[in-house]
Amino acid sequence: MIKEYLAAVRSNLKDIPADEREELLQFYEEQMLDAGYTIKEIEEKYGTPKQFARSLKIEYFIKNDETADENIPTGERTKNRVNLIWLIILGLFASPILIPVAIGLICLLAGAFIAFLGILFAIYAGIIGVLAGGLFAFVNGVILLWQSVPTGLLFMGAGLLPTGAVIFFAPIVWRLTRWLFEMLVMFVKWVGHRFLSKNRVKEAQ
């Protein structure tokens, strides 16, 4: 019966590479056999095969993200993180009990994501505004050169100053953007650990 249970778990672990999937299932099979668990005890401890598979995938993607090599292509790591976020959202919706809590967590997650996008929009809108203002001042300065050289130079300098400031602060803004994204991902992983890890499966039944 344990093999049938783990076979059902395996069918829900297609997102995990085959070698790691089999190693993981072998570990739990040995653990279950050594403990002499019945199917009822297994489901009480780990949940249904689908619930257990979901918790294993969440922990796998969290661990994979935390140990990811910096040389991994950005697109691949982003894809893994999107998978992780999606799994956690599905896991929250799938919780049969404490649905108000699950909805509240999803709203909190959505709020954090919206806040993240809002901050990004404010930062980059500010940059675009500064660049536009600088360009406008510079063009006006060029035009004014024909009327008054000092005034034209003043406007041109006023236009170049914010442009130079944007170029100087651009790397800082980029790092701030990455930091904000990392904070969002850390929050998502905390939700996964706190409510959907395999140690919490029974609570989510």
How would you describe this protein?
The protein is mainly α. The C terminus is likely disordered.
Topology:
Layout: H1 2-10, H2 18-35, H3 39-46, H4 49-66, H5 74-94, H6 99-144, H7 149-196
Features:
single chain, 205 residues, 0% strand
The number of distinct helices, counting runs of at least 4 residues, comes to 7
The unreliable regions are 199-205
* Structural class category: mainly alpha
**Gyration radius, rounded:** 26 Å
Shape: elongated
End-to-end C-alpha gap:
21 Å
Largest sheet: none
The topology string of helices and strands comes to HHHHHHH
Mean pLDDT: 78
Strand content: under 5%
How many individual β-strands? 0
Helix content: over 70%
Question: Quick recap of the structure?
Answer:
By secondary structure, the chain is mainly α. It has helices at residues 2-10, 18-35, 39-46, 49-66, 74-94, 99-144, 149-196.
